[in-house]
Amino acid sequence: MKKVTENVISFEEHPLVAHKITKLRDINTGSKEFGEIITELTILMGYEALSDLKTKMIEVEAPLTTMESLVLDETFTIIPILRAGLGMVEGLKTLLPTARVGHVGLYRDQETLEPVTYYYKMPENVEGCPAIIVDPALATGGSIDATIDYLKKDGFEKIKVMSIFTSDVGATRLLEHHPDVQIYTAQYIPGGLNEDGFIVTAAGDIGDRINGTFGYRNAKPAKP
User: Fold this and answer.
1) 185 lies in which domain range?
2) Closest CA relative to residue 130, chosen from 180, 173, 57, 70
3) Which of 43, 60, 158, 195 has its CA 20 to 30 A from that of 122?
4) What separation in angstroms does the CA of 212 have from each of 80, 128, 219, 223?
5) What local confidence, expressed as pLDDT, does residue 216 receive?
6) How far apart (Å, rounded) are the C-alpha atoms in residues 164 and 206?
7) How far is CA 135 from CA 58, 60, 74, 224, in A?
């Protein structure tokens, strides 16, 4: 784990993370394995991203004595950006099955590269609740930027972002607008995006690869 900036934490130096990132990039990795790796990476990052959850002491009866021990004193809301973000929900739910899930649907306007919202649904009573936005690729940052605006209006606090691939372009935009947000990523990628607003060295369209709706084996490589 390393701090790229005060608000950006990358796990790319961990050998397990680096290995799994390479498997995601490989066009020969099928959709089943691809989705499993996304879940595994989310669990690895989630361990650190959730390290500041509030706890409290309760009394429990252990096999040999009665004692006080820590339990969680707050939950959090997982907010996947449809549809690729759904692939990261299982990993966080594995860590805390009682976590709530909201959903945000956005698509990128191909002309402006800006997000257009078509769906927004959150749990009730979210004021003061920690939120973790999950989206495997933080490229231009537009979708997550817009999502954070919505969440703050709803009263969410301690908003964090988890992505597999994060571009310098997207992270810079996000933190200019929301300097209070923390970003956790498996791979931080410096440099620009291609003309279509994609991270060239990432894993293609992650939503397609998770769902098996597009194959890259016979596709032409993206323009640098």
Assistant:
1) 2-52+74-205
2) 180
3) 43
4) 19, 38, 14, 22
5) 65
6) 10
7) 35, 38, 23, 23
* Phi, psi (deg, nearest 5) at residue 108: -90, 125
The number of domains in the chain is 1
pTM: 0.89
Report the chain's C-alpha Rg in angstroms: 18
Provide the pLDDT confidence category of residue 116 given band limits of 50, 70 and 90. Answer: confident
Q: Which sign does the torsion angle of CA 50, 12, 209, 163 carry?
A: positive
Does some domain include residue 58? no
164-205: pLDDT as tens digits = 999 999 999 999 999 999 999 999 999 878 888 889 888 888
Both structure tokens of 116: 């257009």
Residue 173 lies in a domain: yes
SS3 7: coil
Residues 88, 42: Cα–Cα separation, whole Å: 6
- Buried residues in 35-73 as b, exposed as e (16+ CB within 10 A): bbbbbbbbebbbeebbeeeeeeeeeeeeeeeeeeeeeee
Question: What would the two tokens of residue 53 be?
Answer: 């959850």
Which residue has tokens 């390393």? 2
